[in-house]
Amino acid sequence: MLLRKTRSGYRPNGSFWYYGKMKLETNFLLSKITTFQLGGPARFYLKVRTPEEVVAAVLIAQNKKIKYRLVGGGSNLVFADQGFAGLVIHWSLPKPKLADLKITGSEMIVSAGVRLGDLIKRANKNGLAGFEKMAGIPGNVGGAVAGNAGAYGQTISDRLRWVEVFDGEKILRLTKKVCAFDYRDSIFKKKDWTVLRVAFKLKQGVKEDLIKTSREIEKIRWSKFGKHPICAGSFFKNVIMEGDSPSPKASAEQRRIPTATLIEQAGLDNLKQGGISVAPWHHNFLINDGTGTTKDLIKLKNKIKKVIHQKLGIALEEEVRFIV
Predict the structure, then answer these.
(1) C-alpha angle 273/261/253, rounded to 5°?
(2) pLDDT tens, residue by residue, 178-189
(3) Catalytic: 223?
(4) Could you report the per-residue pLDDT of 271-316, keeping only the tens digit for each?
(5) Residues 75, 186, 234, 277: which is the catalytic one?
(6) Which one of 111, 184, 197, 277 is the catalytic residue?
(7) Under CATH, which architecture does the 10-91 domain have?
(8) Coil, strand, or helix at residue 111?
(9) What gap in Å lies between CA 288 and CA 285, rounded to an integer?
């Protein structure tokens, strides 16, 4: 059923509400849209492509008193094997338009549904530096901002100016300071806000050099991990040293202890539960052999956390978020 926009923006149709030309589906298998390929069916599924459609979808769920969850690239989310008894709003932009990625001088304003890889390519192509070392990180811009994604000394918040969000009632524009960015963390992991647009202020660079750097980073990534492992990338946050910092001014990146090293030290590098196992090529990657379940993943990650705490006295924290 194709949905038609009315003057009010959205309208009732039978037992649900619709907006624009969005197509509502039922019993949609969530394993299709997550990089872990885990999760049962969503009661309702709605694919959106603009910030306006995202807001309308949230209002739909609120109006009908149905719980909802926004999904972008699906790289850091795991749904229950039983699925999700509400509305999953899937913001997918496989081919972003100019309106989704606006560039004025060294400023970029980006829809949160744009894939991070597309943002990096567009920045490189326009000779704008600041993202080139994050090449190969999966997911969309909104998710990357929420998790303050980064690699090789760059994080997405480094060049961020403001974030536009929908708080369930109104659209707000937040400064970088309000976003409370930290190592793989931000206010968006604590607030039930929907990221709509993000503005960045980049540096001028040399187009050819930026493209070369991104290609080299991607080559390193794929040589380590393979191009399409069934996983969410790094599963646990790296551990930040508190008292034994090499320098009082050392950054979180400089003070971190790789969790992959801790997992190996604890003798967990060959651990497996059902179809989920610790990757042999990176011990902070938990991979699905195609037969795994969310129940398998939960059991495996809980065992890793328990043993690491018992043997090393360290409490691990997941980067991946579970919707169960």
Answers:
(1) 120
(2) 999 998 999 999
(3) no
(4) 999 999 999 988 999 999 999 999 999 999 999 999 999 999 999 9
(5) 234
(6) 184
(7) 2-Layer Sandwich (3.30)
(8) strand
(9) 10
What is the architecture, at CATH level 2, of domain 229-323? Answer: Alpha-Beta Complex (3.90)
pTM: 0.86
**CB contact at 8 A, 171 and 165:** yes
Q: Judge residue 215's burial from the number of C-beta atoms within 10 Å of its C-beta, 0-12 exposed, 13-18 middle, 19 or more buried.
A: middle
Using alpha carbons, select from 171, 156, 139, 146 the residue that is nearest to residue 54: 171
Query: In sequence order, which ranges of the chain are alpha helices (DSSP H)?
Result: 51-63, 116-125, 141-146, 207-225, 259-265, 294-312
Q: Is 155 helix (H, G, I), strand (E, B) or coil?
A: strand
Is 122 a known active-site residue? no
* Residue 78 confidence (pLDDT): 96
Classify domain 98-210 at the CATH topology level.
Answer: 3.30.465
Q: Position 61: which residue type? A: A
- Nearest 10 degrees: CA dihedral of 236, 232, 175, 96? 170
Contact, 297 vs 38, CB < 8 A? yes
User: Tokens 């978020």 map to which residue?
Assistant: 321
Single out the catalytic residue among 53, 132, 164, 319. Answer: 319
Q: Where are the domains of the chain?
A: 10-91, 98-210, 229-323
Cα Rg, the chain, nearest whole Å: 20
> What pLDDT digit, counting tens, does each position of 14-51 carry?
445 555 667 889 999 999 999 999 999 999 999 999 99
Nearest to 160 by CA among 107, 98, 219, 97: 107
